[in-house]
Amino acid sequence: MKQPALSIDDLREAVMRLPDDSLTATREAALASLDEQGLPSSQDEDWKYTDLSSAIDVSNRWLAQGAKTGSTETLRASIKSVTASIDANWLIIANGIVDLTCLGEPAEIEIKKFTDSAMPFVMDRPLADLNAALLHDGLRVQIHGATEKPLGVLVIDEASDGARVIQANVEIEVAPGCDAEIVEYQVSSGPADHYANSVIALQIDQAAQVSYVRIQDRRIGHIQTARLSVVLGADARLNMASYDLGGGLVRNDVDIDINEPGADAVFNGLFLAGDGQHIDNHTRVDHRVGPASSSQEYRGILNGRCRCVWNGKAIVHAGADGTDANQANHNLLLSDHAEIDAKPELEIYADDVKCSHGTTVGQLDETALFYLRSRGINKREATQILTHAFAADLVTRAPVPTAKDAITSLVEKRLGELIQEEVL
Amino acid sequence: MLEINNLRSRIGDTEILRGLSLSVNAGEVHAIMGPNGSGKSTLAQVIAGHEDYVVTGGEVTFNGSNLLDLEPEERAREGIFLGFQYPVEIPGVNNAYLLKAAVNAKRKHQGLGEVDAFEFLKIAREKMALLGMDPKFLNRGVNEGFSGGEKKRNEILQMAMLEPTLAILDETDSGLDIDALKAVAEGVNTLRAPDRAIVLVTHYQRLLDYIEPDFVHVLSEGQIILSGDKSLALELEEKGYDWVREAANA
Hints:
The complex is a heterodimer of chains A (424) and B (250). Chain A has helices at 8-17, 24-37, 53-64, 76-85, 126-133, 366-373, 379-396, 401-420, and strands at residues 89-94, 97-99, 109-113, 139-143, 151-158, 163-174, 179-189, 193-204, 209-217, 223-232, 237-244, 249-258, 264-273, 278-287, 292-302, 306-316, 323-333, 338-348, 353-362. Chain A is α/β, with parallel strands linked by helices. A ten-stranded mixed sheet of chain A has the order 2-1-5-7-9-11-13-15-17-19, with helices on one face. The two termini of chain B are 32 Å apart. In chain B, helix 5 packs parallel to helix 6. Chain B contains eight helices and twelve strands. Helices cover 37% and strands 28% of the residues of chain B. Chain B has 250 residues and is an alpha/beta fold. In chain B, strand 4 and strand 5 (65-66) form a beta hairpin. Chain B has helices at 40-48, 72-78, 95-109, 117-130, 148-162, 178-191, 230-239, 241-249, and strands at 2-11, 14-24, 29-33, 53-62, 65-66, 80-83, 90-94, 141-142, 166-170, 197-201, 215-220, 223-228. Classes of the chains: A alpha/beta (424), B alpha/beta (250). The A-B interface holds A 365, 367-368, 370-379, 381-382, 385-386, 388-390, 392-393 and B 48-51, 71-73, 75-77, 81-82, 84, 87-88, 90-93, 97-98, 101-102, 105-106, 109, 141, 158, 162.
C-alpha cells in the first residue's frame, strides 16, 4: 500500500494561522524544506520497518479539521499525577503549549521561549521540519549549576475528539563542568487519534555530566515520533536510560555526536510491547574523534501481536582512534505473533578502535521456568518472575535516583498487563 | 507414600524408563544407584513433573492420588521436592524472594496465611548457619555466580525451608568437597522424620557414609534390577555395576 502524502496546502494554511512572531521565518523555511523532501517512507533505508502512514493520516485529518490546539485545562489532573510521581523542576508542554507553572524557581536553570529569541533550527530532517513548521513555542534551557532536583520535561497530551497533532521542541545546554539530571516524560490519554512529534537537543559542554531518563507512556494507539540529539563536549559524560511502555506507533531516534575527545556516552533502553504496538528505536552514535567511548544496551519484551525494531548504528570516523564502542540488544519474545527486527550496524574508518555488538532473540528459559515451578510457583507467576528479572536489570540501572520508584512501578504495571494479554 | 508401578517414560524418541517399580514409605531413606545413563535422573525429573519426559505407561501415586495428573507446581505444594543435579542460575531473581515465594505458595495451598517476613528471615538465617552458608547469599540472584558447592547448599536450604514430605535429591553429592558434603548431609539428616521420606539419587557410595539409607536400589536400563540394604552400596563400590547386571541376567 502506498503511503499517503501529507496535505501540504492544508499545512501551509495552518502555518499561516500561527501568530506572526520571531518564529515565522523559521516556520516558513521549514515548510518549504518539507514540501521539497516529503516525509520519509519505507523506501528510505532508515524507515524500512516503520510506516508513517497512520501519522500522516492523523495529521491530514487534523489539518482538515482546522489544526486546533486543545485546551490544557482538562490536563490538570494528569499533570499533577505525573509531577507528584517524580520530584523535579517541571517544564511542561501540554497539548503542545508551553506551561512553566510547575518549574519552581531553580536559580541554576535559565529558560527562554523560542519566541523571545529566535532559534536557529537544524532542518536536515523531514520530521524536524514538520516540528519547526507547526511549532507554537519551544524552550531553550540552560543549566548553569547543580540543582537540587532534576529538570523534568513533560510532554503531556489529551486527544478527546477528532484527530490531534502536537509538536514539542526543547533545547538544553548543560554548562561546562556541571552535573545535571534530566527526566523526559511523554504521556498521552484520550480516545481520539493523536500524533506527537518531538525534538529535543541536548548539548553537554566540556567536562559536564548528564544523567537522563526518558519515559514514554503514551496511550496504546497513539503515535509518537521523537528525536533526541546529544552533542558531547570534551570529557563530557552522558548516562541515559529510556523506557518505552506505551504508544501504538512509536519511533525514537537517538543521535549521539562525539565531537571532542574524552567523552563517554552510555545509553540504554527497555521497550515493552503488546497487542497493537509498534516500537522502533533507532540509535546512532558518531565517533568523530578519539579517545572516547559509547555503550548501549537495549532490551525488549514482546507479547501478543506486536512488532519492535532496534537499529543501533555506530560510526567511527577516520581519525577517531582510541574509540571504544559497544552495543547490545536482547529481546524476549513471549508470543509467536511478536516480531523483532534487530539490526546492529558498525561502520569503522579508524584503525585503533575497540567495537563490539551482539543481539539475542529468545523465549523464556524453559529450565528456569521448570525450576521455579518445581518450587511450587505456578506457571503464570514463574513467567512473571522471569520476565520481571529480564527487565529489572535496566530498571536498576536508571540513572536518576529520584525517578527510580516511578519507573519501577510503571514497568511493573505494564509488565503485569503484558503477561495478562495472552494465555501462557 | 510413593508407589511407582511399571513406569515407562521417554524423552524424544528414546525410551529411558522401561517398567520401573518402587515403593517408598514414610520415614524411609532410599538410595538409587546405577551407572550413567541408567535412568536415575529421568526418574527424579518424572516424579517432579518435567514436561520433556513423556510418561508412556505405568502409574505413580503419591499419598494415594495419581501424581501424573498434577502440574509440577502442584506436586511441589503437595510436598514433593526435587534437589537439582544442576541448579539453575536465575540472574535478577533474588534468592530470598524465591524462597519466600516458594514457602508462601505451599502455605497458601495448605490454607495458611503468608509467612511473617521477620520470622521468615530468622528461620532462613538459622538454616543457613546450619549449612555453613553466608547470609549474604539471601540477597544474591538465585544461584547466580555460585560455586558448585554453593549451589548444592542452596538446594538443601530450599528443601529445609519447604520441609517436603518427599525429598528427591539428584546427585546432590556431585562436585562437593568433603566439608560441603558433610554440611549437605547434615542438612538432609536434620530433615529425617517418621512422616517424611528421602530418595537419594547418586552415582557413588560416598554420600551414603554420611546419610545412611534404609534401602539401596540398583537401576539399570530403566529398571530396578536389585534392591537391598546399605551393605549393597558397599558391595557395589567394591565390585562395580557389571557384577549386578550379570547377577540379574543370570
